[in-house]
Design goal:
The complex is a heterodimer of chains A (329) and B (333). Chain A is built from 1 helix and 24 strands. By secondary structure, chain A is mostly beta strands. The longest helix of chain A is centred in the middle third of the chain and has 4 residues, at 142-145. By secondary structure, chain B is mainly β. Chain B is 6% helix and 39% strand. Chain B is built from 3 helices and 22 strands. Chain B has a 6-stranded mixed sheet with strand order 13-12-15-20-17-18. Chain B has a 5-stranded mixed sheet with strand order 14-22-21-16-19, with no helix packed on it. The chains are: A mainly beta (329), B mainly beta (333). Chains A and B meet through helix 1 and strand 20 of A and strand 16, strand 18, strand 19 and strand 21 of B.
Chain lengths: 329, 333
Amino acid sequence: MSSGGMCGGVANACYVYPGAPATPGIVTPDISFSRGIYMDGSITMDDGKVITIWGFTDLAVNNGMARPFPSPTIRVTEGQIVHTSLAVPGDMWVHTIHHHGIEPAWQNDGVGHISWDVQGTYIYQWRPQHAGTYFYHCHTNTVLHAEMGMYGALIVDPVPDPNDPPGTKRVFAGGPAYDVEAVWACDEIASSWHTLCWDAGTCGGDAGLNRLEADYFIITGVDGAKSALTDPRVAVNMSLGQTLLVRYIAAGYYPQRITFGGLTATVVASDGRPLPNPVSMTSIHAVAAERYDCIFTPTATGVYDVTVEFLDWVTGNTLGTARTRITVS
Amino acid sequence: MERRKFLKIGSAGIAGALVAGSGLITWSKRAHAATINKTFYITDGTLVQPDGVGVYFRGFSDAANGLNVPGAALIVQQGDTVNITVVNTLSTTHSFVIDGVVDSGPIAGGTQAVVSFSAETPGTYAYYDSQNPPYNRLLGLHGGLAVMPSGSTNTLYAGSPTFVKQYFWVFNDIDPVWHNALAGGANPTTPFFPRYFTINGLSSRPPGAPGNGDPSVDANADPRSLLVGSIGDRSLVRMINMSLCTHSMHVHANHMEWLTLNGAIRSDIWKKDILPLYGNMGRVDAIYPFEAPPDAYPPVTTGNYPMHLHDEMTQTAGGGLYLFGTMTEIHFV
């Protein structure tokens, strides 16, 4: 594996704010997650190119040896007191976790210049009040660190309804139930950025971070050129009569348009909030970091190819596409 | 002209978003329509960007010897007669346009024109120079206009959710190659690659940076942009994107109530932490509710949070300098 991201130390970076104080008002959590850092991961594209990826490890599994991309999902239930512990060893410089769409105290919001960039271990404490689809990402030199892959899904489930049969899954309390679930985090990769140092540009100079020259397009860490059509981490296989929930996360920077291959989505929530009235859509135009919760109840068997177009932010022209598939049998 | 000088002039435009500063254009409940007069001077100059590079701009300025980018935010009331005198101090031809409302036509260099219109439909509008499109607009000849519903101080449109404060967030992105070509009288010949990203004409300065906390330099501290409120201080934000780039606006600590898109009232009000700002004068009106951050434990009612664009290239200046882009803050006090 390549080891991009090493380069100089924190003392040579600018406008980072190292720290790891005690969490204010810390209590025993209902659920906790333990995240570390990797900066030597990689993704192999369909054309054979290997691109360096950074991300968060799960320190509770095999001491965090795996390098998953996207980073491991954080899944909690509405009302739980959550701890997300972030451990950043000295050789991984500084990072944060911002739980995007979650709205905690400022100390737990993971914005480096307002609180601190974690050096050591900090425990983010929060209690989600709204079920829905979120994501988490690093908020240190974000333009680079999020592009490098430092993000993962964050899902808040509703408290189970005691009137539902056991095992019933709903998008939110009183919302639609679903049988099959997919998380599609759609992202563009500019491979030219993936050799930069962790602190690229922070002290000034032109690191090219205003120009994202995307050359690969992925869905949930899988190349959308071909692999995502069949990779079980992304592609959906379901039976007629089942209900599918797609949690669509616009995880890149450019605008996107996702088209559902002839299926119609019933969009029931966005950005972790139910819509007052669901909306039927055959495609969705999204901008960076939007989330849409899409319910599908196909009425015929078939193979439906889903296309995500990544759009130039000036011209609106399609820069590239990623595809996956819903197979209804 | 240095940015500091320009900003001392610019800060007279709208203070705290409560009352526009000219004394002629005010946001106060009136039973009767009024006649509003305002003079803009089309001027030019150089503004220093966060990496120290000076870039050429033009603006609708409050004084013949100033440079305001964007122009002062105007707040009028439905039914008002608005008379805008535009004095073109430059040698180039310009105009003053509000789409669907008024168009001055070309105003030759060294001349002036008066445009008059009746404020009819409540809402948020862009005023801009439509000559040599889109270049004059991108150079800074733009600003925001609000038409308040007749007799209302707290609604966007009749029956809208209410607010207690209002702000304009006017976004623009700067490709210095384009600006400097235009300064020399030539239209750009290269693709648009912005290197600086602004809200109400300013970029962010993080803690420790020169200018941090200076409202004339730091977008985080600019009272036109910075949202300050206590719990319940619902704040309307009128967003206008003057750039060519489509953007993603992200607020921390609260979701916003999304009222309009490109001037159209949305049939349902969605609560969003991201809102789309389409290029070429995309508009969004949304209310930041200043509710207690819902996911805090223990609960909190105070704290500082950011607003920033989430197409993160916008968070840079000159190709680096993360934290020196389009960002401001939200203070719960």
